[in-house]
Amino acid sequence: MGPVEELRLCLPARFRSLEPFNILVMRTPLLRFIALFFCTLGLLSSDLEACTRVVYQGPNGNVMTARSMDWKTEIPANWWVFPRGMKRSGNAGPNSVEWTALYGSVATSSWDLATSDGMNEKGLVGNLLWLAESQFPELGTATTGQRTLAVSLWLQYVLDQCATVEEAVRLFSKGDVAVITSVIPGTSMVATVHLSVSDASGDNAIFEYIGGKLEIHHDRKYATMTNSPVFEEQMAINGYWKGIPGTVALPGTNRAADRFVRASYYIQAIPQTDNTRVALASVFGVIRNCSVPLGISSETEPNISSTRWRTVADHRNLVYYFDNVLEPNVVWVDLKKLDFSPKAKPKKLALEGPTRPSGECSASFVPTAPFVFAGV
Residue 376 domain-assigned? Predict the structure, then answer.
């Protein structure tokens, strides 16, 4: 696909067939810029909630993954320590996949119904973000031999079973597991998400269900992901902005495409250093730049929602940070201080409320019966 065709894809469908208009746009640099500007401003308002994920690939293995969680309403988050050896079911009907966790992890739960973010003891990190274009297979339509997995467990399945991005790609490339979505309990909203994974080497993969089929994008360079559109179109939009120096102009709205461009630019522009302290401050600066101030949302532009919390995962040092926008301090857990052995019990740490933690909090987790993942 050439550059003209890629830009044409960025235009609203009603403009793609207007040949005189397209010819003029493609031949005129200023109009080409304007077309791209309106593309990134206005096209991508179909995603219901907005998040951003970006990976820092510094020297000497100084790799960090950051994400923001944007949601229209409160989305309570807790930290869970899940040890190795836990037995799980996919919770998606009689053909649910069953497994035993090979690796321990720290998971960030949403409403104690699903794992939406997390890091395992091997430094593998996963993030679930909204994608309105997602179309998951229907329960009962799985092919012969396929096992089913509730979307609430999608990320936890990866953290339990994989040490690297390559392993996660192989796990799903076999095609013997189908992820099934459902309505978020207590709402009328179907969970339409896509999954990103990153590892200690800086490798990346994006998993999306489009038209009922799983699409996998695997490459170290896929360091940025937001919401709509599907990942291939995000890359095409970002490709055009790369021709415009970020010191001259960057798209500044809260929409998904603009956040994608800013995150992609800033994660390369910040200091490329193996100094953990400097890199961490810089990465937090990038993800905060892509956040939406608390209290801002739009009924007519549903992809704009307030940022509720942010995480940064330090793959090299196995430290996982959490930044609640309602709290004045960042908290973190050093995974090297946790007991992930099969004899250990699951533990929980509330990330907000009167018992909220402060600083490094590995000693603050409390043995707790694990929550029940939302089923299909």
Answer: no
> Per-residue pLDDT tens for 201-259?
999 999 999 999 999 999 999 999 887 667 776 666 656 556 555 555 677 677 777 88
Output the domain CATH number for residue 290: 3.60.60.10
User: How far is residue 58's CA from residue 273's CA, in Å, rounded to a whole number?
Assistant: 6
Domain that holds residue 32: 1-43
Residue with tokens 């988050």: 77
> Given 39, 51, 162, 361, which residue is catalytic?
51
**Domain identity same for 9 and 114:** no
Residue type, 312: V
Rg of the chain on CA atoms, in Å: 20
Helix (H) or strand (E) holding 322: strand 319-324
**Distance between CA atoms of residues 9 and 135, nearest Å:** 20
118 with 2, same domain: the answer is no
Q: Is 0.90 topped by the overall pTM?
A: no
Kindly state the tokens that stand for 194: 């896509």
Residue 37 makes CB contacts below 8 A (sequence gap 6+) with: 251
Is 290 among the residues known to form the active site?
no
Residue 372 lies in a domain: no
Confidence of residue 184 (pLDDT cuts 50, 70, 90): confident
* Together in a domain, 161 and 293: yes
